[in-house]
Amino acid sequence: MIKLLMTICKFNFGKFEEREFRKFVRMGTIFFMLIGIYWSMRPLKDSLFNSLVGAVYQPYAKTVSLICMIFFVAIYTKILDFVSKSKLLSLMPPVYFGSVMLLYSVFIWAFQSGSIQPSTVTVVLGYFWYFFVESFGSIIIALFWSFATDITKAESAKQGFPLIYTFGQLGGVLLPLLLIKLPISIGVKSDAISIVVLAVLTVVVTLLVRHLLRSTPSDLLESVVKEETDDSSKKKEKTGFTEGLKLLFTHKYLLGMFAVNFFFEFIVTVFDFNFKLSASQVYSGVELSGYLATYSSCVNTVSLIFLLLGISNITKKLGIGIALSLVPVMFGLAIFGFLTINSLTFLFCLMIASKAINYALSGPALKQLYIPTSKDAKSKAQAWVETFGSRFSKEGGAGVNMLYSALGTATYRLLTSGLGFVFVVAWFLIALYLGRTYKKAVDTNTIVC
Questions:
Q1: What is the pLDDT of residues 3-17, one digit of tens each?
Q2: Does 263 map to a domain?
C-alpha cells in the first residue's frame, strides 16, 4: 500500500525515501486532524459570535482577540522553556482546547435552547469564543510547524511539506462538512453537538503525535531525541518569553516573514468582513453555520486540487522566491475585482481563491523559510511572527473595517483597495528578498538568524 502511495505522490510531490515518506504521512495525518478541527471551528466562531454579539461587532472582536493573544503567546513561549515541543503538541490540544470546548458546548446548548437569555455574560462569552478559536489557529498550527521544521531537512521539505499540506487541506474539506452540518442532519437546533465532537478529536491528535514519535526511526527525529534528553540543560538556558520578540525585531529576515503574514492577513480581513457581513444578511443560526461550513470545505477543496495538480512544482523548479512573489501578483488582481464587483457570490469565490492560493502555494513555501534558522527562531520567533504578523494585520484590517458605516460603501472600498495595492507592491519586493536569502543560506549550509 505504501509503495502505491509513493508512486502516486511521485508526480505531484517528487521521489521519497520510504522511511521518510512514512514519517511525512504520519505528520500529514496529524495535520489532517488539526486543520480539520480548526476549519470546523471557524464557521462556529463567526456564526456563534453573530448570535451572541452581532456581526457588525466583528472588527471589535479582532481587537479584543489581539490584546488577549499577547498574554497567551507570552505564556506559551514561557512554557516552551520547560516543556519540549513534542510534549506540548501532544498535551495542549486535549488538555486546554478540548476541555474548554466541552465546557463551552454546555453553555451553547443552554443558549440555543432558550434556557439562557442574551445578557452581558453571553456577550462576554461570545468575545471569548472568538479569541479561543483564533488562539487555536495561531498557537497549535505554529507549534506543529515549529516541530515539523525541527525534524526536516531543507531538501526533504520541498516535497514533504506540500504533502503534509495536502493532508491538511483534505481534513479541511471533510471535517467541516461532516461536523458543522451534523446538527442540521440529525434535526438538532444547536451547534453544541459539533463542539463536543471537536473536543473528542483533540484527543485523537494526542494519540497521533505519540504514534509518530514511537514509530518513526530516531535518526529522522534527531532534534526531538536531543530535545527530550537535554531537558535539564534546556532549563539552565531559559531566555524568557521575550526572546522570540527580540529575534523578530533584530533580524530583517524574520521581519520580512512578519510583513508577508501582515500583508496577506490585512487584505483578507477586509475581504472576509465584507463576505461575512453579506452572508449574515442572508442566513442566520445553524443555517449560517452550514453556509460557512460549505465555504470552509470549498476553500480546502480548491487548495487540495491545486496541490494534487502539482502546484508545489513551482517552488521546486523555480525556487521559493518565485513562488512567494507570485502570490502578491494574484492578490493585486483580487483587489481589482473587489473594487469593481459587489455581490455575495463574488465575495464567496474571492475568499475561496485568496485562501486556497495562500494555503497551496505560499504556505508551504513560507514554512520552508524557517529551516535555515536557529531553534529559538523556529519556536519562539515563529510564534510571534505567525501570531502577531496575523493578529496585527487583522487588527489593522479591523480598524479600517470599523470605518465601513461612517464612510459608506464606495469610499470604504476605495480606501481599502488603495491600501491593498500599496501592500501588494511591498509584499512582492519582500518576497524576492526572502527567496534570495533562503537560497543563499541553504546553498552555503548556514544559519540566517
A1: 767 776 666 666 777
A2: yes
Q: Is residue 250 part of a domain?
A: yes
For the chain, give the number of residues.
Answer: 449
Q: Is residue 180 part of a domain?
A: yes
Is 298 inside a domain boundary?
A: yes
Q: Which cell is 32 given? A: 489532517
* Residue 183 to residue 198: CA distance in whole angstroms: 13
Per-residue pLDDT of 292-348, as tens digits, reads 878 877 887 887 787 777 776 777 777 888 888 888 998 998 898 888 888 888 889
Cβ atoms of residues 32 and 168 within 8 Å: yes
Contact 78, 240 (CB under 8 A): yes
The CATH number of whichever domain residue 285 belongs to comes to 1.20.1250.20
Residue 227 has pLDDT above 50, yes or no: no
Supply 414's cell numbers.
476605495
Side-chain-side CA neighbours of residue 449 (13 Å): 25
The more confident residue out of 416 and 156 is 416
What does the pLDDT look like over 239-290, one tens digit per residue? 445 666 677 777 888 888 888 888 888 888 888 888 888 888 888 766 777 7
CA angle 342–344–348, rounded 5-degree value: 110
Q: How far is CA 342 from CA 275, 279, 294, 347, 413, in A?
A: 10, 13, 21, 8, 10
- CA–centroid distance for 325 within its chain: 20
C-alpha angle with apex 264: 276 to 429, nearest 5 degrees?
155
Radius of gyration of the CA atoms of the chain, in A: 21
**Structural domain count, the chain:** 1
Query: Measuring CA to CA, how many Å separate 397 from each of 53, 216, 319, 393?
Result: 20, 42, 31, 6
**Full residue range of the structural domain in which residue 433 is found:** 15-229+238-444
